[in-house]
Amino acid sequence: MADHITKIEEITASEAPMDLLLQADPSIKNVKNYLRQSKCFIAKLEDQIVGACVVKPISKNTHELMNISVDPKYQKTGIGRNLLQYVIIATREAKARRLEVGTGTFGYQLAFYQREGFRVYSIEKNFFLVNYEEPIYEDGIQLKDMLRLMLEFERD
Ligand SMILES: CC(C)(COP(=O)(O)OP(=O)(O)OC[C@H]1O[C@@H](n2cnc3c(N)ncnc32)[C@H](O)[C@@H]1OP(=O)(O)O)[C@@H](O)C(=O)NCCC(=O)NCCS
């Protein structure tokens, strides 16, 4: 496991590792657009950036996880889970009531989020067809609809 040697820190949008963010969201236009209004967190292994996560406050109570990505060479070593747990705590500490995320309707990412307590609450039909110029495939299946997941924080 990489847990004990990764360090997570917040950086400015201008320092965001675009190569990593584009792996999770292939639209450079979308990424640049939400980065401007978001917080960006990175996971570092010594001096190398191996993971990144972008969270956008969309209202006082609701923040949205816009992007989370780990360098393929380091995936499945716990870095993604560490990063997700870190931003959940940071969002809670920022006094938001909930953290939302949109993801595809299939794939391991669904378990990745639900393991940390996210629940499905709605579906946006045709989201990936309407919002992306190029078709997106995962495991040979075209992504079409988006599931919206939410993690609600208990009031202190
Ligand atoms: C999603 C992502 C950030 C997870 O990061 P990670 O560092 O690989 O995740 P972790 O090592 O913490 O693994 C968490 C769980 O996800 C599973 N997982 C991660 N990648 C997987 C893969 N490619 N296939 C199957 N399961 C996978 C792990 O096996 C682990 O489950 P386990 O503990 O039961 O074994 C990373 O895989 C990634 O960058 N994917 C591409 C971009 C993306 O899809 N982002 C999310 C957009 S919604």
From TrEMBL:
<keyword id="KW-0012">Acyltransferase</keyword>
<protein>
    <submittedName>
        <fullName>Acetyltransferase</fullName>
    </submittedName>
</protein>
<keyword id="KW-0808">Transferase</keyword>
<dbReference type="InterPro" id="IPR000182">
    <property type="entry name" value="GNAT_dom"/>
</dbReference>
<dbReference type="GO" id="GO:0016747">
    <property type="term" value="F:acyltransferase activity, transferring groups other than amino-acyl groups"/>
</dbReference>
<dbReference type="Pfam" id="PF13508">
    <property type="entry name" value="Acetyltransf_7"/>
</dbReference>
<dbReference type="InterPro" id="IPR016181">
    <property type="entry name" value="Acyl_CoA_acyltransferase"/>
</dbReference>
<feature type="domain" description="N-acetyltransferase">
    <location>
        <begin position="3"/>
        <end position="139"/>
    </location>
</feature>
